[in-house]
Hints:
Helix content: 25-40%
Order of helices and strands: EHEEHEHHEEHEEHHHEEEEHEHE
Structural class: alpha+beta
Strand content: 25-35%
Shape: elongated
Number of strands: 14
Oligomer: single chain
Number of helices: 10
Amino acid sequence: xxVLSIKEPFASLIAKGIKKIETRSFKTNYRxxxxxxxxxxxxxxxEELNNLVKNLNFNRGYILCKCRLVDCVYMSEEYIxxxxxxxxxxxICGRYEVGRYAWVLDDIEVLDNLVKxxxxxxxWNYFSEDEIMDxxxxxxxxxxxxxxxxxxxxxxxxxxxxxxxxxxxxxKNKIGVCYDQVELERYYFNGHYxxxxxxxxxxxxxxxxxxxxxxxxxxxxWFEHSWELCRGIHEFNNLNDLLKSxxxxxxxxxxxxxxEKEKVVLHEYNKPKYxxxxxxxxxxCDKGRYIELWK
Length: 295
């Protein structure tokens, strides 16, 4: 679903049906369904808006309503003067200057359950976690080497020839290990509140796993596709319980419960560069925030 992030009080004015034109400095060719998201930032409320906003409760950081974007009109002097004369309420809810654009909205409908998301600039895509899991089901487990050869079962040269794929490459190749798959999940979770983690056992062989965690309605969810034995969306009351659950499954399923605690390491990591090898990927993750696993 397409989403447009708008500062308050204007997002709430749209949700209430008071404002039906969003004003922008650029045009859009998009037409169709659109979510309206209230940005975390807000504009100072102008005096002429006081009567319109006095009964509004702002929900910054949430998707408030859905609508349809039906037109994008170039602002001529005639257009602006006509709106000012015939719909002054709409006029004061936007920034009308010759050369700007009026994005016309229709069929505005408030959501029964508001959706907490970060938001992005411009029109961006929002996918639910269930939709993302459906997308991920198109990806099978395996890897692509630096020569763009695909490997499904042969891991003999993985440590020396693996390269981290970009989301675009993974969608095309439809095969990747957890490192690749988390980057595609990162792409689809754009706008959500999420973090990515890297767990590894430093024993020479260095078995490892990456995974994504997102937050929703004060709950934490382990989103897992690549690890087939644990595939699914797993709910937890807090982040600590979630990370310990992943730790326990890792040492049981990957290490056969034979391990030294100090060698099991977890880091939260940010988006890496694409097309890097295993050693570069490990180094990137190890520079992330260290998480104590055994408290």
